[in-house]
Write a structure and sequence with these properties.
This protein has 8 helices and 10 strands. An 8-stranded mixed beta sheet has the order 3-2-1-4-5-8-9-10, sandwiched between helices. The chain has one domain: NAD(P)-binding Rossmann-like Domain (Rossmann fold, 3-Layer(aba) Sandwich), CATH 3.40.50.720. The radius of gyration is 16 Å and the shape is globular. With about 210 residues, it is an alpha/beta fold. The longest helix is centred in the C-terminal third of the chain and has 17 residues. The structure holds NADP nicotinamide-adenine-dinucleotide phosphate. NADP nicotinamide-adenine-dinucleotide phosphate binds next to helix 1 and helix 4.
């Protein structure tokens, strides 16, 4: 697949590392594609670096790995992305009642808001319920971690399922994009355990079946 990763922070760089050697053409879409740390990431992963709008132009699958507060401006600047598959791994986080929490929920979700910004694209909410480190490498875990996905287009979800498999996850279809209302609070379960309860970051959810 031709993959564009928009945002080269913890998640964007982890996904680039996780995709290394999996047969994808990866473009890192950065505000500063010439920066030394981005050139080093590209060199380490076999990706190319571009500005975001150039990175998405040639891509079949686009990963949005941006801070929620910057996302609306940055995503709308990418153009309509009509017909493309767009992974939204962003959690709509902010300070809520004095603690880190979701700024939307119950009646909408970050995933639905992103789909609203890109009405012609096939947005799939996924990769939001585990730490970035596990996206880069999870083959030392005793079980394959599960990753849910929510989106309206079955073809896009099939493409994303392949992508998730290549990153070492077992993909599970949660339903349409409104199910992002379930997946975003689910991410808070991971965040609460990892960061508040002291469990650390080297773990993920798994589905155990009988
Ligand atoms: N960190 C995790 O473990 C984790 C796990 C699951 C989901 N998430 C979600 O994934 C998203 C990205 O998280 P992250 O931890 O990778 O964030 P991060 O380390 O802060 O990286 C975000 C990247 O977005 C780009 N960007 C574009 N416009 C920006 C702006 N105005 N301000 C700052 N950065 C901007 C930057 O890349 P360039 O400089 O290259 O443009 C930046 O490195 C978030 O929505 C988060 O909720 C994070």
């Amino acid at each position: 697949m031709r993959v564009a990763i928009i945002g080269t922070g913890k998640v964007g760089s982890a996904i680039a590392r996780g995709l290394k050697g999996k047969g994808h053409d990866v473009a890192l879409g950065s505000r500063d594609p010439q920066a030394a740390h981005i050139a080093a990431l590209a060199s380490a992963t076999g990706a190319v670096t571009k500005r975001p709008a150039a990175a998405v132009a040639e891509a079949d699958l686009i990963v949005l790995a941006l801070p929620w507060g910057a996302a609306e401006t940055a995503v709308k600047a990418l153009g309509p992305l009509t017909g493309k598959t767009v992974i939204d791994c962003m959690n709509p986080l902010g300070m809520v009642g004095g603690a880190l929490g979701l700024t939307v929920g119950h009646s909408t979700s970050g995933g639905e808001i992103v789909q609203g910004w890109l009405p012609g694209a096939h947005v799939v909410k996924t990769l939001n319920s585990v730490g970035a480190e596990i996206m880069a490498k999870n083959d030392t875990l005793p079980q394959r971690p599960v990753m849910f996905m929510a989106g309206n287009d079955n073809g896009a979800k099939a493409q994303v399922a392949t992508f998730l498999t290549d990153l070492g996850f077992a993909a599970l279809d949660a339903g349409d994009i409104t199910k992002a209302r379930l997946l975003e609070p689910f991410a808070m379960v991971w965040i609460n355990q990892a960061l508040v309860r002291g469990k650390g970051r080297n773990w993920a959810f798994a589905a155990v079946e009988g």
